[in-house]
Prior knowledge:
The chain has helices spanning 38-55, 94-102, 111-122, 182-185, 187-199, 214-222, 226-250, 266-280, 299-310; strands at 2-8, 12-19, 24-31, 63-70, 73-75, 80-84, 89-92, 106-110, 131-136, 140-146, 149-150, 254-258, 290-292. It is globular. The strands form 3 sheets. A 5-stranded mixed sheet has the order 3-2-1-4-8. A 5-stranded mixed sheet has the order 11-10-9-12-13, sandwiched between helices. 46% of the residues are buried. The chain folds into 2 domains: 2-117 and 297-310, ATPase, nucleotide binding domain (Nucleotidyltransferase, domain 5); 124-294, ATPase, nucleotide binding domain (Nucleotidyltransferase, domain 5), CATH 3.30.420. Helix 1 (38-55) crosses helix 2 and helix 7 (226-250) crosses helix 8 (266-280). The protein is α/β, with parallel strands linked by helices. Bound molecules: zinc ion (ZN). Residues 163, 173, 175, 177, 180, 182 line the site of zinc ion.
Amino acid sequence: MYLAGVDLGGSYIKAGIVDSGGKILAKGQVATMADQGATAVILRIKALLERLLWEQGLTFADLQGAGVGIPGSVDTDSGLVKLAPNLGWRDYPARAELVKALKVPVIVDNDAHVATLGEKWQGAGRGFASLLMVTIGTGIGSGLIINNEIQRGHFGFGAELGHYKIAHEKRRCHCGGRGCLETVASATAILRTFREGLACGCSSLLKDSPALEARQVVEAAAQGDVLARRVLERAVRHLALALANISLTIGPELIIIGGGLAQAGELILEPLRKHLQAYLGVWQVKPLPLVAAQLGNDAGVIGAAYLALSENCNQDM
Ligand SMILES: [Zn+2]
């Protein structure tokens, strides 16, 4: 039997047909076009999977189930998407609608949880029972696995490291709160702080750079750019503080850093490790490895397939 993994994003739907060993047999993506409404999105998922199955000489009848990662607050038990701002969904019965369209068992979960499961199954987290994955991109997403179980928590969102409060920081977060880690340490926040520095007249190697990305700030810091170093140092310090606190709370065996900013590799991981170790001090009684994610954009698809496999999609059709 085969599994379908779907990574539903605000801009793109990525999907793959995956075997039970975690190998992607076929994958593809289409634009989400969320503005056309939820039903249209469901039909686009169906059409994409149909095409991928056809390429492999398969049909929906060959699927054991489909897993779908969704960017928002998802109640996996009921299959209800409580809120997905990028899709414009609120209290949307995603699993029921997907089951109706695909006619296979479906399981839905938050996209950060799904990516974390992907890295544990086939990526940097293989062999670890308890780990934290943090995805740093436009925002900060996180997934927490303890004793091989993804933690969804009583409220359904598990760990939301991006909204940990950094008390003395006052920027407004898109969640409506103030002082969230995401407003200081996401790629968006790094860029914003850097631009504020430029606007205040700080000199920098990137002063005349038209298309500025957070990754360029990281690279400029590595080249000794004073403003870039200052901005990055601040972001990394706050991130390390949040990682230290969650580590002291749950004691993970491993921390995985993913997302766009993790592509900067050791430029970001090395200072992050240094600060994390300093915060943990004597309490780091065993080594706590902090490594880059390995699956890149495939983590969501592979994790969604794993969800379908592991939860066995045991539900009424
Ligand atoms: Zn927030």
